[in-house]
Each structure stands twice: as structure tokens, then as C-alpha cells.
Amino acid sequence: MTAITHVYNYTVRCPHYKENEKPASWLNHVEINQSSEIALNRITKWHCEPGSKAFENGEFVVRKSDTDDTYYAMQSNRMLNNAHSLVTFKIFLDQCCQDADPEKIVAHLVEDYNGRLAKAQ
User: Fold this and answer.
1) How far apart are CA 118 and CA 112, in angstroms?
2) Could you tell me if 10 and 105 are in contact, meaning their C-beta atoms sit under 8 angstroms apart?
3) The whole model's pTM is what?
4) Are 33 and 3 in contact (CB under 8 A)?
């Protein structure tokens, strides 16, 4: 058995304001951290409150919370040299982001994650 050697947690929030005359966009509000504690908290919460399947993107199954406009996904990947990665995606959508498409957001996050995995191997 091997340990998880790489952890990536993505959080996307819809902005409620403009920055420096730029239009408000979720692209400006993508946060990434590598906290194992955050990943484990998310997995525990999502296990207890699984939500409903919304769509798939490749191997990612994206679920929507049954209580609010939050989408989430998680996955682990085997890497070279018997290493493993764990990724979580959490997307907050609300009234200000009605035009934000969760499928496009997830596609963007998956592309970024795959790029990070390629660099880590």
C-alpha cells in the first residue's frame, strides 16, 4: 500500500464584485491548496451528504449538493514510482453567477489538474 503523496483542493467561488474594471468571472476566483486536512474534511462531508449526480467529465463524477448550489468531485490517481494523488473540486454557484456553467468550470479544473500531475511525474 502506498501513501497519498500529492493533494490538490480546488475551490471556485462566483464573485460578487468586479476587480480593476475586469468583468466579474469565476476564472478570477479559482483557489488551489494542498491541505490533506481540507481534502479529508471534504471527503467525510461528501460521504455523509452525497448529493445527486449532476454530470461526468471523463473519470470525474460531479455531484450537486441537495441543499444549495454547490458542485463537487473527488478522485485519486496512481502516478509514476508508485505515488498517488488525491484531488477535490468544490464549486460554489449562486445568484450572481447564473451564467457560469459547472461543466465548463470542471473541464477547466480537470485540465489544470492534469497539467499539475504531468509536472509532478
Assistant:
1) 10
2) no
3) 0.89
4) no
Residue with cell 455523509: 48
What tens digit of pLDDT does each residue of 73-84 get?
Answer: 999 998 888 889
Query: What phi, psi does 34 have (nearest 5°)?
Result: -120, 35
5 in Cβ contact with 88 (< 8 Å): no
Decide if 77 contacts 93 (C-beta within 8 A). Answer: no
pLDDT digits (tens, 9 = 90+) for 79-104: 888 889 999 999 998 766 666 899 99
Residue 66 CB burial class (10 angstroms; 0-12, 13-18, ≥19): exposed
The number of angstroms, rounded, from the C-alpha of 119 to the middle of its chain's C-alpha atoms is 19
Evaluated on CA atoms 82, 3, 46, 118, the torsion sign reads negative
Q: Which residues, in sequence order, are CB contacts of 88 under 8 Å at separation 6+?
A: 8, 9, 10, 38, 39, 42, 43, 72, 73, 74
- Note whether 81 and 50 are within 8 A (CB): no
Domain ranges of the chain: 4-120
